[in-house]
Specification:
Oligomer: heterodimer
Order of helices and strands of chain B: HHEEHHHHHHHHHHHH
Structural class of chain B: mainly alpha
Number of domains of chain B: 2
Number of domains of chain A: 1
CATH superfamily of chain A: MetI-like
Radius of gyration of chain B: 26 Å
Strand content of chain A: under 5%
Number of strands of chain B: 2
Helix content of chain B: over 70%
Structural class of chain A: mainly alpha
CATH superfamily of the largest domain in chain B: MetI-like
Shape of chain A: globular
Strand order of the largest sheet of chain B: 1-2
Largest sheet of chain A: none
Number of helices of chain A: 13
């Protein structure tokens, strides 16, 4: 029994190491001298630890430091997350608790739009935003989130349905209108579902590339994804290190949030099938 | 006496269900007020664009001049003239139909491995899920590109093991497999869903099977797989739809070109290039409609096939 236990854990740990190897390699390489990264590709430990890559990477590219790109990313992430989470909560209350004509149809449409391939709306959306003169601004990337996000709506509807209906009845008897019922009673109770949605929104917006590629075209407006892409486009043997360092750096907040809030993430995925 | 007066005053909600005829205009308006962001957003960002993209698919449009009606020309060109189009279809099919089953098999394997009572499960689960959370990022695509580069760690390790280094950026099929490996590496969310499903299988089933002398393979095929099949279907559908739309890894790893020899020119990347590099908006819109219909058909086939392999427990059982 004892050796069986040992074999199991050795096997799982070995497997986990293989899984983690690419990330460890990225982080370790970012501390190597740029010229050494590919010469010593198979050894993980740098011969000499250097922070030079981080210093050089932080200088950024196109005349803007990484502080600009991080600021831009945070701006997009925070605004679109607030928009998506609160709009979705409002919509979810409508679907989860209210009765009105055509609700079933709209709910079906909402569920259907989760599966809709983005390719089919991409081009007309771009044309519309171009005609509105919104190219090279954050508006096309942020604005749509203020109309709710189907995945989050679904997640919150599921959550609202688990709340006892007696709450609504009691509130109604006490003279609560529907909107008051929503923000005084339901909203605080669905906080866990909103937290899950906010975490996923943070991930997806922080990592988003397609929107910025289409709509942002001056380096001063670039998000971190775009900045990394710019590093890649200007790839030379001398800046591998900087590219590695900044890649590792942009993963840091994502991994930190993951470790802080993994309970919400695991529950969110396991209960709703939300993709990560 | 006292209770009766209360009954009269307080409207009865019962199960909370009221007949539609009892709903007032105010109820309908309140409902629509709450879902109005979705309704408006759906009209503006989904329905009108879908319609516009349908119209554009019959036109020649470069974004700067007015769209010119060309009938079915885009579709004819796509299906009969465009070699790169068929290549991108082929590449995408290999990517989806090799990547998704591998990813699901991996996810199931790890989920079963982690489905025991060890105290370390939380740590392991976190470790195996981490790649999925960062997998869609540019940073990871850059990492993957360098890991597989000619002098990267993968080839260095292959050489150490006495194997030939692979030309991941010279051979189109090898380059595609590099993308597939990246997708398999991100098996985490399917794994979590499988893990939740495995926990719902009553332990007594396995105990009963043990009593009957079933071995591990029999238990897997007779208990685990049938009971998990609805979840496998769900994962397969979601992952297939997502895989058809993969864009970022191919875009970053091939530096936006789909190289080598269009080996990583996934459908979404080719569509993006047609629209935003060559400004063939009409052609790209036609491509978008074809993939929409193709994904719908494949999803429908998956659901139809489920009749033969998905096991739904009978009521009460």
């Amino acid at each position: 029994m004892r050796w069986k236990w040992l074999v199991y854990h050795v096997f799982v740990v070995a497997f986990a190491f293989i899984m983690m190897y690419p990330l460890i390699w990225l982080v370790m390489s970012s501390f190597k001298e740029s010229s050494q990264i590919f010469i010593t590709a198979k050894s993980l430990i740098p011969e000499t630890f250097t922070f030079q890559n981080y210093v050089q990477g932080w200088q950024g590219i196109g005349g803007h430091t990484f502080a600009t790109f991080i600021g831009n990313s945070l701006f997009v992430v925070i605004l679109s997350t607030i928009g998506a989470v609160f709009a979705s909560a409002l919509i979810a209350f409508g679907f989860g608790r209210l009765k009105f004509a055509g609700k079933a149809i709209w709910f079906a449409i909402m569920m259907g739009s989760i599966m809709l391939p983005t390719d089919v709306v991409l081009i007309p959306q771009y044309i519309i935003f171009a005609k509105l003169g919104w190219l090279n601004s954050f508006t096309p990337i942020i604005l749509p989130h203020f109309f709710g996000f189907p995945f989050f709506i679904f997640l919150m509807v599921q959550f609202i349905r688990t709340l006892p209906i007696e709450l609504d009845e009691a509130a109604t008897i006490d003279g609560c209108g529907k909107f008051k019922l929503f923000y005084r009673i339901i909203l605080p109770l669905i906080a866990p579902a909103m937290a899950t949605a906010a975490i996923f929104s943070f991930y997806w917006r922080w990592e988003e590339l397609l929107g910025p590629v289409l709509y942002l075209n001056s380096p001063g407006k670039y998000t971190v994804s775009m900045a990394l892409k710019m590093f890649l486009d200007a790839e030379t043997s001398s800046n591998w290190g900087a590219m590695f360092a900044m890649s590792a750096f942009t993963l840091l907040p994502v991994i930190a949030v993951f470790f802080m809030f993994q309970k919400y993430i695991v529950e969110g995925i396991s209960t709703s099938g939300l993709k990560g | 006496m006292h209770t009766e007066t209360i009954k009269k005053r307080v409207p009865r909600f019962g199960s909370g269900r009221r007949l539609r005829s009892q709903l007032t205009l105010k109820d309908h308006l309140t409902g629509y007020a709450f879902i109005s962001p979705f309704v408006l957003g759906f009209l503006m960002f989904t329905l009108i664009p879908i319609g516009a993209s349908f119209y554009l698919s019959f036109t020649d449009y470069d974004l700067f001049t007015t769209p010119a009606w060309v009938g079915l020309d885009n579709f004819t060109e796509m299906f009969t003239g465009d070699q790169r189009y068929w290549n991108s279809v082929k590449v995408t099919f290999i990517y989806v139909f090799a990547g998704v089953p591998l990813r699901l098999a991996f996810a199931l394997f790890i989920a079963m491995m982690l489905n025991n009572a060890s105290k370390l499960i939380g740590v392991y689960r976190t470790t195996f899920y981490l790649p999925s959370i960062i997998g869609g990022s540019v940073a990871v695509a850059i990492m993957w590109r360098n890991l597989f580069g000619n002098e990267g760690a993968v080839n260095a390790i292959l050489t150490t093991m006495g194997l030939e280094p692979v030309g991941w950026f010279a051979d189109p099929l090898a380059a595609l497999w590099m993308l597939i490996f990246l997708s398999v590496w991100q098996f985490g969310s399917s794994m979590l869903i499988f893990l939740a499903g495995l926990k719902n299988i009553p332990q007594s089933y396995y105990e009963a099977a043990n009593v009957d002398g079933a071995n591990a393979v029999q238990r897997f095929f007779k208990i685990t797989l049938p009971l998990l099949s609805p979840i496998i279907l769900f994962n397969a559908v979601m992952q297939t739809i997502a895989a058809f739309q993969t864009f970022v890894p191919a875009y970053i790893i091939s530096k936006g070109e789909g190289t080598p020899m269009d080996g990583t020119l996934l459908y979404s990347l080719y569509l993006f290039r047609q629209a935003f590099v060559f400004f063939e908006m009409g052609y790209a819109a036609a491509m978008a409609w074809v993939i929409l219909v193709a994904i719908a058909i494949i999803t429908a086939l998956l659901f139809l096939s489920s009749r033969y392999w998905v096991h739904y427990e009978s009521k009460g059982g």
